[in-house]
Amino acid sequence: MTTNKTAFDYVVNHFFLPPKLPQGNDWTPSNRLTLQSALLAFIEKFRAFVVSRRYALVDSAASMIRRMVMAQDETGNINCDNFGKVLQEIGQSGPGEAVPLHVVSQNAGVFLTRHKDSVYIETFELALNSAVMESPGRLSRYFPG
Predict the structure, then answer these.
(1) What is the value of pTM for the model shown?
(2) So what's the pLDDT on residue 133?
């Protein structure tokens, strides 16, 4: 996987969350693809460090990311034809198989999971709102210095 500095910085910022993050939207279709490709490569390499009885979990995670990439077009939007293929694949798979989707235009997430004879669809908003930021149980990060 070849990346330029901007794409590399994007991956670092979104995987490792360093103390100084960009103060704006750094999303581009190219950065998205680089991030997803890096995540898939990390998962596949991680498999070598897992005991063999847990391979199925790692393989399932890799399949989930592959499906997410397959469902998108080159601009990062969901492609109807590709999404249909993903749904068909999930329908033919066993329980527990899933695909996460990012609906870019609405900054929302959709998570589809296969359960026995059905597919569960979960949706969630990815943007923070004031109610989330002001809640007492919110996640907080503090850095020394």
Answers:
(1) 0.78
(2) 60
